[in-house]
TrEMBL record:
Positions of the Formyl transferase N-terminal domain: 15-193
Pathway note: Purine metabolism; IMP biosynthesis via de novo pathway; N(2)-formyl-N(1)-(5-phospho-D-ribosyl)glycinamide from N(1)-(5-phospho-D-ribosyl)glycinamide (10-formyl THF route): step 1/1
Name of the top EC class for this enzyme: transferase
Record-level GO cellular component terms: cytosol
Species whose genome carries this gene: Sphaerisporangium krabiense
Name the record gives this protein: phosphoribosylglycinamide formyltransferase 1
Keywords: Purine biosynthesis, Transferase
Amino acid sequence: MTAAPLLDGRPRPLRVMALVSATGANLTTTLELAAERPDLLRVVLVASDRERAGALDVAARAGVPTWPGRFAAECGNHRACVTEEDRAAYRARAEAFHDRLLARVREFERADGEIDLVVLAYHRWIHGGFLAHFRDRIINQHPGDLASLDGSGARALVGMDPVGVALRRGDTATRTSTFLVDDTHDGGPVLARGPALEYHGPRPPSREDVDAHERRQKAHSDRPVLRWVLTALAEGRLALDPSRPRPDGTAAVLLDGAETPLGGHDLAADPTHEQDRAGAKAGAS
């Protein structure tokens, strides 16, 4: 039996919601693609975990409805959690925050039409009803190679500082992974990986070295892989096959019916994306 494409049966253009926390680089990429290919997708809503974020300004300038949030005021800070009881209470508040967001989304969908896909550029873990409502319909950009496994077979570059971990352990290059969000932390199936960006800085790298490299990676790797995944999803080219688990335990990702490697489609090996890579290098220079 052939696996059904992700987002199968959803009409085009896809109606996209973005969850944002910062400057809006990934939102800008999504909006640019929507402007170039209105047949593929349309950004219909942008929500944030905070009241002020550059991404909200990007959305407002594009005429997209925006929903600011107050996550820190309503949920607190996970770094302040000391005991397991503290962490459980924080998680309950975070789930309640996203449940309230989901209630607003459902009202929006009843009035304006269903949302097909959620794109994350978001600094919060999502659990509960929001995740269930958008099962296999949330994608996230992660600035680490999620095909890199440790000795136990687990993903080695998860968490909040994958670029720093990679450079401190001696990696010569880093890259961005786009994956389907599930209820694990950076554990969902990887759909694609962007071009690798070589590192030529000092060893060991300082925090400033890591941050500068990650900023360059946003142009070189984030942008092309997000554009590719959005296009492939809208064109119905990507599917999941749980009957063929990968070494990291996730379902196999199929591209045009053929199984992809552990890290999904590899843009570094795709000659059709020279133009995107050239543009990314120009933006990073």
